[in-house]
Design goal:
Blueprint: H1 10-13, H2 27-35, E1 40-45, E2 57-60, H3 65-72, E3 78-82, H4 90-111, E4 115-120, H5 131-144, E5 150-154, E6 162-165, E7 168-173, E8 176-179, H6 198-205, E9 216-218, H7 220-223, H8 227-234, E10 241-245, H9 250-265, E11 270-274, H10 277-282, E12 307-310, H11 315-326, E13 331-335, H12 337-341, H13 346-362, E14 367-371, H14 381-400, E15 409-412, H15 414-424, E16 429-437, E17 440-444, E18 455-459, H16 468-477
Parallel strand pairs: 1-3, 1-4, 2-3, 4-11, 5-10, 5-11, 9-10, 12-14, 12-15, 13-14, 15-18
Antiparallel strand pairs: 2-16, 6-7, 7-8, 16-17, 17-18
Helix pairs in contact: 2-9, 3-4, 4-5, 8-9, 11-16, 13-14, 14-15
Domain Four-carbon acid sugar kinase N-terminal: 41-281
Domain Four-carbon acid sugar kinase nucleotide binding: 307-469
Family: Belongs to the four-carbon acid sugar kinase family.
Length: 478
């Protein structure tokens, strides 16, 4: 295949692909199949960006039995629990997953409700795999005596240009298919990896517990042959083996979802490690247009400014921030990370930012608070997490100190948006309204929040073009 830069291009692979499955609208049937047994699809989201494909559902930031009971009683089949484990150490991630599984199983037993777990993680393969799926699997086995037949690995996220082709996961950059293991994300200080072929990635991440040949693969040919072929393959999976899913489109995932529901109705049991697109398909959630301006501004707060908080350090975020600063009259306030990490300077640096944020918002000016762009990092994983947490805590304290109600809040980056939601805004349960653009979800804060009923835009660090952050602000201000 002829490609530029020595890489595959999305255009060049098209002539070699089988046609998508001929039945185009499987989503209503999928939704109907979920509703019949009133099954709950519970998505454990390791940062708040996982709701970037869904709408009109709840996201919980706590998982006590009382809140779970309340959510189980609702008619909706899908809900999210924000665990934020990608921003925590491994021991905390394990504890949280175990605690959630125990509480969910207790409430499900009380109410006689079936459920499945989707462990939602990053579309560029960062996060605690296999720890999280192992913990959920072991806990459910201990509580019920049952074992999953397989854990499906589905990192496809089409809105962000993430596809899986011939077992390798790719990031689309325009037409170029960049293998995920060659991207900046694979060099992550905490969750880095070397393998691109997902069967080898599983072997790398499980430290050899599963070898490439242990992985079960659902090919694009099978998916595009229709649900019968995929169901037949899934019926053979057992022993909680890893199942690699190739997918280039929602049509592919819809075929998978229908086949899964059929296999599950015949007694098969699966757990999922996925990015965001699978949940929309498996939940039978229909498409929705991007949210209009009216949904992005808090009613009654139009005279105040809006607040953008940027914590993510990925290159895409930095470029988006630069475009915003260079092409708008937004007020820039840079939080100097070295000062935040220095106990003697921390309080003065925080006070400087807090005073100006409050003044500017009250005057109706939009403000962007951003951590200084030079990444402060060390070789130790635990210390890097601690640095991230210290910076995130400072950003949270700024939000906690807000006196004027912003007309909107945008949080950029996974750890940042999670901490601001749970600690800065005290959100216990929010409603996902939809998206402002591809892969950028909007929450409506609950009654219990510091500011109730305001739009909270959760902007992933690695999503969008260089203009997407600027475009979001321009849409609100149009």
């Amino acid at each position: 295949m002829s490609t530029h830069s020595g890489k595959l291009s999305f255009t060049s692979i098209q002539p070699h692909l089988p046609a998508e499955w001929k039945e185009v609208n499987l989503r209503p049937l999928i939704k109907q199949m979920n509703e019949a047994p009133h099954k709950k699809i519970i998505v454990l989201d390791d940062d708040p960006t996982g709701v970037q494909t869904v709408h009109d559902i709840d996201v919980l930031t706590q998982w006590d039995k009382e809140l779970l009971r309340e959510t189980f009683e609702k008619q909706e089949n899908v809900f999210y629990i924000l665990t934020n484990t990608r921003g925590l150490d491994a021991a905390a991630a394990e504890r949280i997953n175990r605690e959630i599984a125990e509480n969910v199983q207790a409430v499900a037993s009380e109410t006689g409700t079936k459920f499945v777990f989707v462990s939602r993680s990053d579309s560029t393969l960062r996060g605690y795999y296999p720890l999280e799926t192992d913990t959920l699997s072991e806990t459910m086995n201990r509580l019920t005596g049952k074992e999953y037949d397989g854990h499906l690995i589905i990192p496809a996220f089409f809105e962000g240009g993430r596809i899986t082709y011939e077992n390798t996961h790719y990031i689309l950059d325009g037409d170029t298919m960049l293998p995920a293991h060659e991207s900046e994300f694979a060099k992550d200080k905490v969750f880095g990896y070397k393998q691109g072929d997902l069967t080898k990635w599983v072997a790398e991440k499980t430290e050899g517990r599963f070898q490439p040949e242990d992985c079960f693969v659902i090919t694009l040919d099978q998916l595009r042959s229709g649900p019968d072929a995929v169901e037949e393959a899934l019926m053979k999976v057992q022993g909680n083996r890893p199942v690699i899913i190739n997918a280039l489109s929602y049509s592919d995932l819809d075929v998978l979802s229908l086949a899964l529901l059929r296999a599950e109705s015949k007694g098969k049991s699966f757990i999922f490690r996925t990015a965001a697109s699978f949940v929309k398909s498996y939940g039978g959630i229909p498409d929705l247009d991007y949210l209009p301006k009216e949904k992005l501004i808090a009613k009654g707060q139009e005279a105040h400014g809006g607040l953008i908080v940027v914590g993510s350090y990925v290159q895409k975020t930095t470029r988006q921030l630069e475009h915003l600063l260079n092409n708008s009259d937004i007020v820039p306030l840079q939080l100097i990370v070295e000062k935040i990490l220095d106990p003697t300077e921390r309080l003065n640096e925080l006070k400087r930012i807090i005073d100006e944020v409050n003044e500017r918002l009250a005057q109706g000016e939009n403000v962007v608070v951003y951590s200084s762009r030079r990444l402060v990092a060390v070789d130790n994983k635990a210390e890097n997490l601690q640095i991230s947490r210290t910076v995130s805590t400072a950003l949270v304290q700024i939000v906690q100190s807000l006196k004027a109600v912003p007309k909107f809040i945008i949080a950029k980056g996974g750890i940042t948006s999670s901490d601001i939601a749970t600690k800065g805004l005290n959100i216990r349960k929010a409603r996902v309204l939809g998206q402002v653009s591809a892969g950028v979800p909007v929450w409506l804060t609950g009654d219990e929040a510091k500011f109730s009923g305001i739009p909270y835009i959760v902007f992933p660090g690695n999503v969008g073009t260089d203009d997407t952050l600027l475009d979001t602000v321009l849409k609100i201000e149009s």
